[in-house]
Amino acid sequence: MSATIDVADPGLYESGDPAATWAHLRATKPVFWNEHPPGRGFWSVMSYRPALEVYRNTGAFTSELGMRVGSDPAAVAAAAGKMLIVTDPPVHPQLRGLMNSAFVPRVVATLEESMRRVIEPLVEKALEKETVDFVSEVAAVLPAAIICDIMDVPQAERSTMIELTSQAFGASVGVSTDFASDCPMDGLDKTEAHSEIFLYYTDLVEERRRNPGDDVVSAMIRGDMGGRRLTDEEVLLNCDGLVTGANETTRHASAAGLMALIQNPDEWRRLKTGAVGIDSAVDEVLRYTSPALHVMRVAKRDVEVGGQHVRAGDSVVLWNSSANRDESEFLDPDRFDLGRTPNRHLTFGMGPHFCLGAPLARVELKVLLQVLAERVGRMELTGPVKRMRSNFMWGIDRLPVALTRDIR
Length: 408
Description:
Layout: H1 11-14, H2 19-28, E1 31-35, E2 41-45, H3 48-56, E3 61-62, H4 73-79, H5 91-99, H6 105-110, H7 112-128, E4 132-133, H8 134-139, H9 141-150, H10 155-168, H11 190-210, H12 216-222, H13 232-263, H14 265-273, H15 278-289, E5 294-299, E6 303-305, E7 308-310, E8 315-319, H16 320-323, H17 358-375, E9 376-381, E10 386-387, E11 396-398, E12 400-405
Helix pairs in contact: 7-9, 7-17, 9-10, 9-13, 10-11, 11-12, 11-13, 13-15, 13-17, 14-17, 15-17
């Protein structure tokens, strides 16, 4: 059966819960050759331990030939060695070091107050409505607003950037009026909105070269890369990577986490009563929702992965979502358990490419869960859920819900 399953088929993730398919593959072919498209393919790693091995074995695998199934080879070649997610040593640690200043725990902690200022009015507005699309009206707005903080986008331009970002990443309607711009970008599709974002950061880089500050853009501009400065192209590629990463993980984890709480009312009660700690709750939301379905590496030499002989040049795809449901690593893995411990999930990857924005995503989810637990009494679905058609992001495009105020 596994030979006929294409885990890169977007329909698998759009139509429903793929957990049974993952479980079957882990039990029968934890590492197998996946034909996609016919006549071509890659190695799919479905289980936790072999995925961990590949993440850690940077000597045998490269990130510079693409990090996702279906990447445009020309686009990958243009970004390789310049954009953090498609770089190898020695460039990767140098570039990561420049960008890391915006994501250290001390800096992220200072953003927590900003996150509350964003989330509280969004939740309050949702409580006043009969129904809201939680994706576009709440989940999409928080990461867009916080990335503006990290890049120090001027206050006068933030509403436009939040709206553009929401459109670029799929939440193009219903953005909170607290953040809607005076010049809305109605009619732009995702590609056009993303292009507008790129053009905006082109201008921002030019301005920061003249007037550097304490933001991540300025850090990249003035940083030393082995005796040289980053070019404008390198700075822009990594701005784009930051915007993409910051928006997709938190947005999808927030929406899917809310749906999991609705479907598991006992866990919602545990969260509200403080029966589970907020940090363990955040980790379980991240494990259970696993927004980034996969990460790809390419073998630089012949190597064994999970008992399979992988040849130099073969693509190896690590299905984080399946690894996070591995029975050998997680007890009763398909159960949503906010008190789960240990919880060594691979949602942010592992090894040198561990997600740069992981501390930020954790705090964003923490603040969201805290505000929901403080202010919301009851939550329920009010219409059909629309899932994304994607083999890269396991997400939700539309989540209609009714939130009822906690009147205790």
